[in-house]
UniProtKB/TrEMBL annotation:
Stretch forming the signal peptide: none
Source organism per UniProt: Myceligenerans xiligouense
Name of the protein described by the UniProt record: ABC-2 type transport system permease protein
Key words, A-Z: Membrane, Transmembrane, Transmembrane helix
TM spans (from-to): 46-67, 79-98, 136-152, 164-193, 214-240, 252-272
InterPro entries cross-referenced by the UniProt entry: ABC-2_transporter-like
Domain of life, per lineage: Bacteria
Length: 284
């Protein structure tokens, strides 16, 4: 009798969670099947995104080659560790949340109003309305670069390093996802100025792949604390490598990546809430 009393609430909660998540899972499954239906096109998309990632990695290699192999206190192998961490976190976030920052197109078309008719949270509907599996090509390249950089650099492996690596990837993913949500919230105000949000979404991605030691003081404030890009890759990489970090961004701050992710999501939800309250409908 006691076991049944204890087990019953758990079963009710589990059933309720499944009931809530089922509509989102059905929509996502349909999107995945649709993208895989045309296999030649899907493979071409995977290859294309991998080439984009390869091109951006080549930029890092060319930049360090032009700087005689050292830039901002890092050599090329150390820079590839920063690049691999940032690229894997960004490409994963772009796959799941990347379409949120294109909300302005739906607002202009009036299709956002359809989402308001359904009894699910607007943001959850928007996130699960699509998934960009083609980004897997870019993620695969990032995994290869990150694995190569971890082997090539002198990382002292142990539980601390493994925990730090896992923490940086999870928090980096969360921070990039939060940036997409901030951009989505601002799209309710900036219908024809998507470049404004691109500045911190894609500009932040680019900044996260570079050593923070070369950032100007204003860039350090923006991408170190307002949009905490430094916590996605640079600071965890400095901890893994045993390097001191940059001015205003010492390496030990890398352990505060969860706090940075929490701050990023607080900013994201505030921006989203303000945008949703501002929206008055498409007029249709």
């Amino acid at each position: 009798m006691g076991d049944g009393f204890v087990g019953r609430p758990y079963g009710v909660v589990r059933g309720r969670v499944r009931q809530v998540l089922r509509p989102y899972a059905v929509v996502l499954a349909s999107r995945i099947r649709a993208q895989r239906a045309y296999r030649a096109s899907f493979r071409a998309d995977l290859f294309g995104t991998a080439v984009v990632g390869l091109t951006e990695m080549a930029e890092v290699v060319v930049l360090f080659s032009a700087a005689n192999g050292t830039l901002g206190g890092l050599d090329l192998m150390q820079a590839l560790l920063v690049f691999g961490l940032a690229e894997l976190a960004f490409s994963s976030a772009d796959m799941v949340f990347g379409h949120v920052d294109s909300l302005a197109q739906q607002v202009r078309a009036g299709t956002v109003d359809i989402l308001y008719l359904r009894p699910q949270p607007l943001l959850a509907q928007l996130v699960t309305s699509d998934i960009s599996l083609r980004r897997l090509g870019r993620s695969a390249l990032a995994v290869v670069v990150l694995g190569f950089a971890l082997v090539a650099n002198d990382v002292e492996w142990g539980p601390r390093a493994v925990a730090l690596l896992a923490l940086s990837l999870v928090c980096g993913f969360a921070i990039f996802c939060a940036n997409f949500v901030v951009a989505g919230g601002l799209q309710f105000f900036l219908l024809n100025a998507q470049e404004v949000t691109n500045a911190f979404v894609y500009g932040g991605r680019h900044a996260s792949t570079q050593p923070a030691t070369v950032w100007l003081r204003s860039i350090t404030v923006i991408f170190g604390f307002v949009f905490p890009m430094a916590f996605c890759a640079y600071l965890p990489a400095m901890l893994l490598l045993g390097e001191p970090g940059a001015a205003w961004l010492p390496a030990w701050l890398g352990w505060f990546a969860p706090a940075a992710a929490l701050w990023a999501w607080t900013l994201a939800l505030l921006a989203w809430r303000a945008g949703v309250r501002h929206y008055q409908g498409g007029g249709g």
